Amino acid sequence: MTSSRKGDQVIEPLPPTLASMWRLCKTGYRHEPRLMAGAFILSQLAALPDALLALWLALLGAGVVQHRPGLLEGAAIGLGLSAAATWFLRTISTRFQRRFRDKVTIALESHVAQLQASIATVAHQERPEYLDRLSMLRNQVFVLDHMYMSLFSTLGWILRLAVTMALLVAIHPALLLLAVFAVPTVLTSSWRPVVERNAQERGAQVNRLSRHLFDLATTAAPGKEVRVTGIGDRLMRERRAAWQKWYLPVASARWGSAWWHALAWAIFGCAYVGAVVFVSSGLHAPAAQVLLVLAAGARLSAYIGATVGEVGFLRGFWADGSRRLAWLEDYAASVAASGDLAVPSAIHREIRLEHVSFAYPGTSRTVLEDVSLALPAGAVVAIVGENGAGKTTLVKLLAKLYEPSSGAIFVDDTPLARLPAGDWRERLAGAFQDFFRFEFRAKQTVGVGDISRLNDEPAVVTAVDRAGANDVIARLKFGLDTQLGPTWPNGVDLSFGQWQKLALARGFMRDEPLLLVLDEPTAALDAETEHALFERYAAAARSEAGASGRITLLVSHRFSTVRMADLIVVLDGARLVEAGTHEQLMAKRGQYSELYAIQAAAYR
């Protein structure tokens, strides 16, 4: 499989269409084998009596022309039975397919969510071209179940087409040429969606911008600032401009392909008229055969139209979605959590970084450069530096959310790269500055920090106490049973600081982590309050480190709040510039001492 390049990064192509659709079929069969098989069989049975209508119509006409009452009655009965069977089987098939779709939809949504969760890193979520693919897959996954119905329908139309062609060939083999003249319609129907989807793909980023601007103008979160700044009209103008930039190339592609498609149908129309003239005048066929050509030929045009239309739709939207799903499966498999060593039960000496460098995917700017550092077992380590110095990036590398671009990280003497990501993260805990607001009941919002104890109220209460979030729970009407989030029934909203405290409590749910990370978890608080809380966390961390050798990592841009740390690491411009205790660094009169004095003077 080849790859194309964009800048300095490799962009994996989408897998082939047929292979992707076959994989999606196997996924559906794996989850709902009986329903899928039943839906397929019924859809084909429903197609067969409909295909025989042309035969009954021809025999009915022959009975009238030849004055044969027996043939007339038999054809009428056959016509009625075919019509009734078509209606009955179609009704049963539709009910069966609906049941299959309802169940397979949940399976596909779960499959996509599981694939996302299985990816060891978050690098793909910071690559624009992958974000475009994931965005389109999220839009398609909720209706991807329609692909099965579209596939069954396509096969049903092909069955009708085959029966109709067999009836025509029975009159004269030359009538098979009608199928040849139908080939251009098939080709253009298969080609059109590809052209249109390629145009849409090229403009996916602009389309995503259009949707983003629309969300900014219409959703609640940015509502206050949109109104205060008065940018609503500007957002809509820019949204319209972005949409036009996406739509105009798509419309041009649609018009161009439509002209070719119309020409293909004109060719088939001429061939159909020629077939009728050939049978009636050239072969001097009896009336029954002429009527069969008229009826079957008319049905043939309808069947070809439905077949190529369904094939085009299948090749376009559904195949496109199946290719993105297949790509996600391949991508997840290629970067799945892996590791051949067991996570140690304790840290005996240190976590060690050796010449670690890192640049985010799709960029050339180094965020961390040649960092060598030892984090002692049982220690409270503070990482400080200006915004953008690489503090959070270092935390992400330790959590295996990314792999270093170069260098290595060791837990004692075990390479972190060889530890399974999932197992390693089970021994991590902490809170992050960019925390997520889980709008569950307060108990679950905290409890997800240790999913095995999600509803363990004593454990949740302990975590809330560790985070100093008792005041938040005390203000909630139903305490830990309060629904959070104002958009839910009886849900309540919280201030940013309150959400942050609950996120901090979530980080304290695990009792015996090997690494506890507090990445600016109190950024919403003033420096004095943050300092007091960090003092409390540090004291608790030292007393609870025990035999596990837990390392507590405090990340802050406030130098004055982390004086109590056993080791202070100073990052600047992607490099490690200093490391030591507060007293040692002040005595060196280097960058830490200078910045500490500047910040202290500002606070005074």
Give a brief description.
With 604 residues, the protein is α/β, with parallel strands linked by helices. The chain has helices at 17-31, 33-51, 53-65, 69-118, 128-141, 146-171, 177-202, 204-218, 223-229, 232-282, 287-334, 391-398, 421-425, 442-447, 457-466, 470-475, 496-507, 527-544, 582-588, 591-603, and strands spanning 4-6, 9-11, 350-359, 366-376, 380-385, 406-411, 414-415, 428-432, 515-519, 551-556, 567-572, 575-580.
Describe the secondary-structure layout:
Elements: E1 4-6, E2 9-11, H1 17-31, H2 33-51, H3 53-65, H4 69-118, H5 128-141, H6 146-171, H7 177-202, H8 204-218, H9 223-229, H10 232-282, H11 287-334, E3 350-359, E4 366-376, E5 380-385, H12 391-398, E6 406-411, E7 414-415, H13 421-425, E8 428-432, H14 442-447, H15 457-466, H16 470-475, H17 496-507, E9 515-519, H18 527-544, E10 551-556, E11 567-572, E12 575-580, H19 582-588, H20 591-603
Parallel strand pairs: 5-10, 5-11, 8-9, 9-10
Antiparallel strand pairs: 1-2, 3-4, 3-6, 6-7, 11-12
Helix pairs in contact: 1-2, 1-11, 2-4, 2-6, 3-4, 3-11, 4-11, 5-11, 6-11, 7-10, 7-11, 8-10, 10-11, 15-17, 19-20
